[in-house]
């Protein structure tokens, strides 16, 4: 999902003309990961678990990296980007949160700062936000990435990389609250253990629901050796763990195309979304991603007017 500018320029000294929401919570997991809570001024945010909306800030706002805007055109415009809506997962009493009853939206945001001639315009500004700051937020959720096709007895496997976990948190908790009878699991692939922002809440849900599992996979850190920290997989990628069957032990069950829906969100290399060639056949990227692997195992890609049990959302 790429950053875009809203075409109409706004005055840098009058942001209230465009801002329609307030930051009510801003907590850094670490310097490169942020949990942000935003509440609309007058409207109630309407969104289904799994959907995304847009956030926007003016190009005149300060950046956490201290860089100056490289182009004059950014200084008088809103910069916006689509973000999947996450979930706080647990309410203040420790129970699974009612997503549709929330009067705010939670976002899980990563800051990527690499030397480039075209630095990101929005996320470095998001990391400067604090409670009480103003922002623009779309009033509605968008997209078809949701758990609507899933029956109450079907198994659900969510596989995400990094902040691609966000929509999975919202969908999984909503299904658990509804008394879903099938198995539900979230697999989250990150570089390091410190990138697992929601792990304590996932562990709490595992204690509450026998049919729920959370499996963290780390690509650059070894497995946790401490006896009180189990269920981690280190220095591996999801694709190889799934194809080799090693993912099934921590899951506690083996997914099957007969009764399982699989959701993929995050890095395109993990997803491996196909393109159509001139004859209408799928062409897959190299190296293979999860989509190609799953289709070879008998799963079906979910498409308009052609329902399937493999669903994906690309982040960039």
UniProtKB/TrEMBL annotation:
Pfam families, per the entry: NAD_binding_1 (PF00175)
Protein EC: 1.18.1.2
Key words of the record: Nucleotide-binding, Oxidoreductase
Gene Ontology MF term list: ferredoxin-NADP+ reductase activity; nucleotide binding
EC class: oxidoreductase
Annotated InterPro entries: FAD-bd_FR_type, FNR_bac, FNR_nucleotide-bd, FNR_type-1, OxRdtase_FAD/NAD-bd, Riboflavin_synthase-like_b-brl
Occurrences of domain FAD-binding FR-type (ranges): 16-151
TM segment ranges: none
Lineage top rank: taxon: Bacteria
Keyword Plastid: no
UniProt record similarity statement: Belongs to the ferredoxin--NADP reductase type 1 family.
Name of the molecule in the record: ferredoxin--NADP(+) reductase
Gene for this chain: fpr
């Amino acid at each position: 999902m790429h950053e875009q500018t809203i075409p109409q320029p706004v005055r840098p000294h009058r942001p209230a003309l465009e801002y329609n929401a307030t930051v009510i919570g801003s907590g850094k997991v670490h310097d490169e990961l942020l949990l942000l809570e935003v509440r609309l001024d007058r409207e109630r945010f309407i969104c289904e678990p799994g959907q995304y909306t847009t956030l926007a800030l003016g190009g005149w706002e300060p950046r956490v990296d201290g860089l100056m805007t490289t182009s004059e055109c950014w200084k008088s415009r809103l910069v916006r980007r689509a973000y999947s809506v996450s979930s706080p997962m647990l309410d203040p009493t420790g129970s699974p949160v009612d997503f549709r009853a929330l009067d705010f939206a939670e976002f899980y945001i990563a800051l990527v700062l690499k030397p480039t001639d075209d630095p990101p315009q929005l996320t470095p500004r998001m990391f400067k936000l604090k409670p009480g700051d103003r922002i623009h937020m779309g009033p509605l959720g968008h997209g078809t990435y949701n758990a609507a096709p899933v029956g109450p007895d079907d198994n659900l496997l969510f596989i995400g990389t990094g902040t691609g976990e966000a929509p999975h948190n919202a969908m999984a908790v909503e299904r658990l609250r509804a008394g879903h009878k099938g198995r539900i699991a979230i697999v989250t692939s990150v570089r390091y253990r410190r990138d697992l922002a929601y792990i304590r809440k996932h562990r709490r849900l595992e204690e509450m629901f026998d049919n729920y599992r959370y499996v963290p996979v780390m690509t650059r850190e070894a497995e946790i050796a401490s006896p009180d920290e189990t269920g981690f997989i280190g220095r591996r990628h999801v694709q190889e763990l799934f194809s080799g069957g090693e993912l099934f032990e921590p899951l506690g069950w083996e997914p099957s195309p007969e009764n399982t829906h699989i959701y993929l969100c995050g890095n395109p290399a993990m997803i491996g979304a196909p393109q159509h060639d001139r004859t209408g056949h799928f062409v897959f990227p190299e190296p293979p991603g999860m989509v190609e692997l799953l289709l070879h195992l008998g799963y079906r890609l979910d498409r308009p007017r052609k329902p399937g049990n493999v669903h994906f959302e690309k982040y960039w």
